[in-house]
Amino acid sequence: MTIKIFKDRVNLRLIVFIVGVATFLIMVFVAFSCSPVSEEPINKDEGNEQEETTGTDEENSASVEDMDSEGGEAEILFEEVELAGQVFKLELALDDEQRALGLMWREYLAEDEGMLFVFPDREPYPSELGFWMKNCLIPIDVIFIDREGFVTAIHEMQPPEPGTPDEELPGYYSDGPAQFAIEIRGGLAAELGLQAGDYIEFRRDYLIQLAR
What we know:
By secondary structure, the chain is an alpha+beta fold. The chain is built from six helices and eight strands. The protein has two domains: about 1-35; about 80-210, Protein of unknown function DUF192 (Jelly Rolls).
C-alpha cells in the first residue's frame, strides 16, 4: 500500500514535470513566431544608399528646373491668324508669365509677326483688359477681341520715355469684356483698315483650352 502510494506520487510528479516542460516550450515557440514584420532589423547600408539616390521631392524638383534652364529656352508656340487679308505668325502668350512679359525688350517686329494673348476660360475672363508699355522699345498696335471674335478696341501704343515711372505710364483698354489681344507692329492696324467691330476668324476655343 505504501509502495503503491509512492509510485502514484512519482507518476504524478512526472506528469506535472512533463506538463510544465511542454507548457514552457509552447510559450517560447509562440513568443518568437509572432514578432511583427515591422520590427525586423533594417539594413542601414541599403537605407543610406536609397536616400542618396532618390533625395527629397524638393531636390528633385530643383534638378528638373535646372535641367530646363540649362537645356535652352522653353518651347514657343505660334498661331497663324489672318488680319484684313494678311496672314500673321503670332507668338502665343498662354500663361501669366508670358502675358506679363509680352513684347518687352523687343527691338524689332516684322510686318507679318506679332503676339496673340489668350486668357483662360475662368473668372474673371472675359473682362475689361488693360495693357501698358512698360519696358517696350518699339511702337505696338494692340487689338482687343471678345470671346466671339469681334474687335472691341484698337490702340496705337508708343514706347515711353526712358525712366518714366510706372504710375505715369498710360493704360490702353479693351472698352468692354475681351478674351484675346493681338499685338502687331505700330501703325499696321490702321494701314490694314482694321477697326472696332471687325470679325477675326481664328481657333478661339482651341486656344482657350491651352491658356492657363
